[in-house]
Amino acid sequence: MKRCAWASDSAEMLVYHDKEWGVPKKKVSELFECLTLEIFQAGLSWSTVLRKREAFREDFFDFDVKKISQFNEKDIERLMNDESIIRNHAKIISAIQNAKACINNDLVQLTWEPFDFTQMDGLNDNNKDDIKEFIKPYVKRFKDTGFKRVGPTTLYSYFQSVGVINDHEIDCFRHKELNDSFKA
Length: 184
Description:
- By secondary structure, the protein is mostly helical.
- The chain has a single domain (5-183), classed as Hypothetical protein, domain 2 (Endonuclease III, domain 1, Orthogonal Bundle), CATH 1.10.340.
- Helices cover 59% and strands 2% of the residues.
- It is built from 10 helices and 2 strands, in the order H-H-H-H-H-H-H-E-H-H-E-H.
- The chain has helices spanning 11-19, 28-41, 46-59, 65-68, 73-80, 89-104, 107-112, 128-144, 152-161, 173-183; strands at residues 120-121, 165-166.
- A two-stranded parallel sheet has the order 1-2.
- Helix 2 (28-41) crosses helix 3 (46-59) and helix 8 (128-144) crosses helix 9.
- The longest helix has 17 residues, at 128-144.
């Protein structure tokens, strides 16, 4: 069975590729988890994030935006002292700010509405400048609604992870499965 080249980096990556990446998600908690993890991943490998994912779920109350939006200095200190997650003060602050942005905005609508709630084929064969141009209006939209640390790379990766953009390689078995299942 043919997969995307990156999927064979580890057992965790293989499972993530086969079961989750690019599968359309339309629950706020799932979307918020993906966005938060993409932000924490910036500058690190995705396998690092996957290894720490369960700890993130525990520390961030299964990505419940109402609970996270109420985090205070004590919560920030708790997270900064937890070695089981990625401890980055700016990224922790952005998670809290983004949870507050979710309270004031419909993350499902914000994510899917510009695409008419339909998955699109990705731009993985295009160059980085094309992708950066494509993603600019979406970055602006997220930032205008109060989201932090949602630059072009992070937001494009988020769209890939939540299934807005199907960027599985064309000959990967998941590319066809996802296209077929979304059209059904």
